[in-house]
Specification:
alpha+beta, 7 strands, about 15% strand
């Protein structure tokens, strides 16, 4: 990829794109974040349109164009494809987001898809962005879908190190890889803090913690999908060092990036396992709490039942004399024992006998 050839030898459409009907160059494309031409690691110009970039790059065949796009239109990508001979499959992927991280080579052009991430403090969640990079002999094109990563900082960093920038598009690619991987560090720190808070909430009995565990687990799945393929991609680049004559400085640079992404990937795997364990512990604690509540309800029901039996027993005992008194309180002249001398003691004795009998019965049945 480091072999530099004349553009006419590999560009499919060397003709310049047509100008506007009035003979003026097209207006500035809103999706072009920045387009810059470099020679020997130093900025030569900053064209305002893609047409100007193409024209100036033809005038400086030993230069390098760095074009940054943010959600470009189909026409813009097709113009880039015609100018730089980009493969139609790679262009199709760049038009649509939601691609998996991958590295593919189409002749002299390398197509890289990266998933950047950033941690949002306010909502305590991870925001993912997608970056597509085309790397050719004398150009580098970035197509961003999302806020991350901050490529302007990468551009400033490279311009402050012209010796590194002079190594060509490969150096810019490795700087972008380094920026994406470095952007994972705040995410790892934020997720670690979230997991610590979740552990506190789990043992504190917060009922909303289950939802937070689930949402963070989904984010870790996305994070794992972003970092795990990147390990293989970097090892594939390192395997091509000898074949493509990669500069020794870039080799050391890429090995350092590979070490960082391997460490990040291992941390993400650990986060997923930790969240799985926390979810299991939370489910166990919730089950124990539910069992304790059920036991408390059962005990409360048992106590209520005991109280109800006592109330029912005493009600029955008190009802017996009331029944006898009610019968003998009727005003009928022909009632039995109405004029009997022993009628009153008999009624009192009958009430006492019935109440005592009921008390003994309920006592033996543990109702009293």
């Amino acid at each position: 990829m480091s072999d530099r050839r004349p553009r006419a030898a590999w560009r499919r459409h060397p003709e310049p794109p047509p100008e506007s009907p009035a003979g003026r160059p097209p207006s500035v494309e809103p999706s072009v974040v920045q387009s810059t031409l470099y020679r020997d690691g130093r900025r030569v110009s900053s064209p305002t349109t893609l047409a100007d970039t193409f024209r100036q790059l033809r005038q400086h065949p030993d230069g390098m164009a760095w074009i940054g796009l943010q959600r470009p239109t189909e026409e813009e990508l097709l113009s880039l494809a015609a100018e730089f001979d980009l493969h139609e499959l790679a262009v199709e992927d760049a038009m649509e987001a939601h691609q998996r991280p991958k590295l593919e080579r189409y002749g002299d052009t390398l197509f890289v898809v990266l998933r950047a991430a950033r941690y949002l403090d306010a909502p305590e969640e991870v925001d993912f962005g997608e970056l597509h990079v085309f790397v050719g002999p004398d150009f580098l094109i970035t197509v961003r879908h999302g806020a991350a990563p901050d490529l302007l900082a990468v551009r400033h960093r490279m311009e402050e190190n012209p010796d590194l920038l002079a190594l060509g598009p490969e150096a810019v690619l490795y700087a972008i890889l380094d920026a994406v991987v470095d952007g994972y560090a705040p995410v790892v720190a934020g997720v670690q803090n979230d997991i610590d808070e979740i552990e506190t909430e789990v043992f504190g009995g917060d009922p909303a913690v289950s939802r937070r565990i689930y949402e963070l687990s989904r984010e870790m799945v996305e994070f794992q999908r972003a970092t795990r393929p990147l390990v293989g991609m970097l090892h594939a680049l390192m395997a091509g060092f000898a074949k493509y004559g990669t500069d020794e400085e870039l080799q050391r640079y890429l090995r350092d990036v590979a070490d960082h992404v391997t460490h990040t990937s291992e941390r993400v795997d650990g986060f997923r396992q930790a969240l799985t364990d926390i979810l299991t512990v939370n489910a166990t604690l919730v089950t124990q709490q539910q069992n304790a509540e059920m036991r408390a309800l059962a005990e409360a029901g048992f106590e209520q039942n005991e109280e109800l039996k006592k109330i029912s027993a005493w009600a029955a005992i008190l009802f017996a004399p009331t029944l006898v008194g009610t019968i003998y309180g009727m005003n009928f002249d022909t009632m039995p024992e109405l004029h009997w001398v022993g009628g009153y003691p008999f009624a009192i004795g009958l009430m006492a006998l019935v109440c005592t009998s009921l008390y003994v019965i309920f006592k033996r049945r543990d109702w009293l």
